[in-house]
């Protein structure tokens, strides 16, 4: 059966934060930032709760639904020209960032700085985060959530970009039309792959 996909709504934000916290529990980048495994699940819950509050418009995010209509995978996109979080937004959320990261804040900001220094500047849709509930991985939900926005990219004639620190994700993204354009390593942390997808005619 085809996987149902819909745009996210404001009411979906808590469920999306929970989904991504579970999906990223073993992610190399998150393990680098949140180094204490016993605290990671709680920190990820706080982190993704914050992330889902930062963008005022969540309608570009795609949710893939299971047969019961529950969100099983999400693709969080930022539109062209909005891939970077504005400094004013960072300052406004600084108290929440301190609560979320604690002593890991310096590491998180350093990681963000390196990511931004390698990020392409040509207009594109940015896949900021994509995740699937662990029990449903490998069943097509993640790909369905991502493809929904890629169809828009193709219709608009716009590229798409992402970064991943998970080697096993590269094949999935390549199957969706992305190609590796850069690799870099965070100091004392993981390797990242920057990927780019040209629109399909």
Describe the structure.
Helices cover 43% and strands 21% of the residues. It has helices spanning 13-23, 28-33, 37-54, 87-92, 94-101, 105-117, 141-156, 167-175; strands at residues 4-7, 62-65, 71-78, 125-132, 160-164, 179-185, 191-197. It is α+β, with helices and mostly antiparallel strands. The protein is globular. It has a seven-stranded mixed beta sheet with strand order 1-2-3-4-5-7-6. Strand 6 and strand 7 (191-197) form a beta hairpin. The two termini are 27 Å apart. Helix 1 (13-23) packs antiparallel against helix 3 and helix 3 runs antiparallel to helix 5.
Characteristics:
21% strand, 201 residues, 43% helix, seven-stranded mixed sheet, alpha+beta, 7 strands
Task: Outline the secondary-structure elements.
Layout: E1 4-7, H1 13-23, H2 28-33, H3 37-54, E2 62-65, E3 71-78, H4 87-92, H5 94-101, H6 105-117, E4 125-132, H7 141-156, E5 160-164, H8 167-175, E6 179-185, E7 191-197
Parallel strand pairs: 4-5
Antiparallel strand pairs: 1-2, 2-3, 3-4, 5-7, 6-7
Helix pairs in contact: 1-3, 3-5
Integer average pLDDT: 96
Q: Level of helix content?
A: 40-55%
Percent range for β-strand residues: 15-25%
Q: pLDDT below 50 for ≥5 consecutive residues: which ranges?
A: none
Report the count of strand segments. Answer: 7
Q: Strand count, sense and closure of the main sheet?
A: 7 strands, mixed
Provide a compact summary of the structure.
This protein has 201 residues and is of the alpha+beta class. The protein is built from eight helices and seven strands; from the N terminus they run βαααββαααβαβαββ.
């Amino acid at each position: 059966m085809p996987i149902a996909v819909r745009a996210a709504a404001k009411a979906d934000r808590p469920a999306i934060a929970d989904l991504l916290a579970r999906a990223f529990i073993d992610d190399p980048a998150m393990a680098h930032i949140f180094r204490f495994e016993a605290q990671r699940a709680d920190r990820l819950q706080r982190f993704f709760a914050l992330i889902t509050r930062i963008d005022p418009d969540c309608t570009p995010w795609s949710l893939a639904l299971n047969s019961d209509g529950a969100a099983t995978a999400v693709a969080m996109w930022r539109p062209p020209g909005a891939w970077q979080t504005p400094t004013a937004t960072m300052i406004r959320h600084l108290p929440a960032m301190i609560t979320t990261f604690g002593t890991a804040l310096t590491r998180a900001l350093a990681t963000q700085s390196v990511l931004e220094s390698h990020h392409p500047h040509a207009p594109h849709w940015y896949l900021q985060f994509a995740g699937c509930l662990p029990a449903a991985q490998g069943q097509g939900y993640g790909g369905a959530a991502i493809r929904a926005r890629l169809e828009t990219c193709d219709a608009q004639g716009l590229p798409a970009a992402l970064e991943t620190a998970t080697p096993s994700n590269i094949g999935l993204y390549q199957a969706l039309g992305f190609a590796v354009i850069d690799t870099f390593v965070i100091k004392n942390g993981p390797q990242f792959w920057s990927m780019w997808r040209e629109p399909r005619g």
